[in-house]
Every structure is written in C-alpha cells, then in structure tokens.
Design goal:
One of its GO terms (molecular function) is carbohydrate binding. The protein is of the alpha/beta class and 349 residues long. It is 42% helix and 20% strand. Strand 11 and strand 12 form a beta hairpin. Helix 2 crosses helix 10 and helix 7 packs parallel to helix 8. The N and C termini lie far apart (60 Å).
Length: 349
Amino acid sequence: MRKGTTARGVLGLAMAVALAASTAACSKDSPGPAAPGGGGSGAVGVDLPRADSDFWNAYAGYIAPKAAEVGVQITGPTNSQNDVQKLISNVDSLVTQGAKALVIAPQDTGAIGPKLDELTQKNIPVVSVDTRPDTGNVYMVVRADNRAYGTKACEFLGEKLGGKGKVIEFQGALSSINGRDRSEAFKQCMTEKFPGITVFEEPTEWEGSKAQAALETRLSTDPDLKGVYMQAGGVFLDPTLQVLKQRKLLFPPDDPRHIFIVSNDGIPQELDAIRKGEIDATVSQPADAYAQYGLYWAKQAMEGVVPKEGPTDHGSTVIKLPNGFEDQLPAPLITKDNVDDPALWGNKQ
C-alpha cells in the first residue's frame, strides 16, 4: 500500500476494480441490457405439462439428472395436467416457494400470455420448453422446428405412396403453436408437392382416444387408407397400432397392403415399432436436450445473461422472437436406416 493512501481511497479503488470486472464480464457474455433475474442464485421452478404421454414422462425423468449436470436447484416439479388454469396456479405456487426462474411447457400457447407478462413485472424469467407462447414475454423458448416436423412427415409419406393415395392426419391441439405448425406445414407440403394425395385432417386435442375413434371411422369409410401421420407418438402410437391389429391391417413394410405410418416424438416405443416394421418413421424430439437446455437457459437468466442470436455450442441456433428468444434444437428423421443410432435419446432410455 502506498504511504498516505486513505481507507476511503482503498475502498474507492476496490469498487472501481469490481465495476470494471463486472462490466468486462457483461460485455463478454451478454452484450446489451441486463436480462431479468440477474441475482445469479436461487431455485428454478419446473412445471410438467402432463403425465399421460410417454414423451413427457421421459422428459420428466431427465429433470433431476440434468439439474445436477447444469448446476441448479429445483422447486417442484408440479404437473399442470394439460390445463392452463392449473399451470397458472402451479406457477404462482412455485414463485411463492421461492423460484427465481421458471421452466414450463404451456400446452395452450394463447392463454398463457397474461401470466407471462405478470411474471415479467415480478422479474421472474420464464423458459418455455417445446412450445412457443403466442404472446407474453419469455426469456427463452427451447424447442425444435415444428414446421419441419410436418414437412418431413409429408415428404416421407408422399415419397412412400408415390404421390397418390389417402392419408389420415392426427392433428394436435390447434390452440398450441406446435399443433398449428405441424398441421400447417404438412398441409402446405402436401398441397404443393403431392396434390394427388388426399389428406383427412382429424383434430384430436392431443388425445389418443380421439385419434383412435377417428381412425376406426375413417377405415370404415375409406378402407383403402394408405398412410397415417401421428403428430405425437407419445399419445397416438398405442391406439393406432391397436386399431390396425384389431382390423388385421398391420402388414410388414414389404407387403403391398402395408399402411405407412410416420410419427413425431422419438420415444423408445416408436423406435421399437420401427424395428418391428409396425411404423416406418418418426421425427425425434430431443426430450433430454429439452430438459438440459431448459434448465441451462433458466440458469443463464438468473445470472443476468442476455442471449445472443446465431449458432450455439450445442448444435442449435438461437433466433430472436418478438417476445423473447428461441433456441432451435435439431430433430432428426428416424427410419429403419438409423433407428439404432446410439446418439438418439430414445436409445438411451
């Protein structure tokens, strides 16, 4: 210490050094204004969207190990059971319990907006997994490109059917951005690339029983059905195979009577069905990565990091949304050619 330096001078120097270090760190990791929840500590509140889907049950199983891997504490998880009002109640409970950030998966992407704006006012950052809220501020959306799901399913079925025939589509809930994205992209692709294919659009609200009833009715009126697009294998796989088995229509892929089936999710049950020749393809939603990066971005939010647009170090791309950011994760098409790939999360269960 230099002779004559006062205590006030030492304190001022220390504060200046700390401020400089803080400014340098912010400019390195988070250019622009600070993100919500910049305290850097606290628990992440997690709400699970439902317990009646193999995909979401797999996601739930990843929460605890991924939280340990990312280095965050968890409050919850609660389960909103596909009910937006229950989700709102669960969110309030998680915040009351001390959650400083939230990871949720709202199935009704229109109705959650006001609650998101309320959380913004409370400085509680929200990460939305799998679904993109229509309105309301979010820190980050972690999802794959759902329009690509519909396009990949269309192209697969269109090529297998040689551009002609009849296909039934089990649409997810159209109150969800995922249901709309998959349905719109599938329809656009079929209209533009395969106009000779007739598509029967069947709304299901993501309910397996509705898909099952729709398939039974359609097979009665159109027994020459040649393709099925299931927008969520986690809820549609078992009912679909059950109907086909009961009607003795489950033929192997090399049989001319085979009904081609493409799905979305990538759950282990779908991969087994592909190996058996019961279905032909699925688009793999990364349940493990949804949990990992949902929690990762919640931690980033609590640390005050502002996301950057562009490629990430985990093979995805961050884009800017009108109401936040989106981390778009890769979602590969799985067929018999790559079903045994050990990198697929469905092969790690």
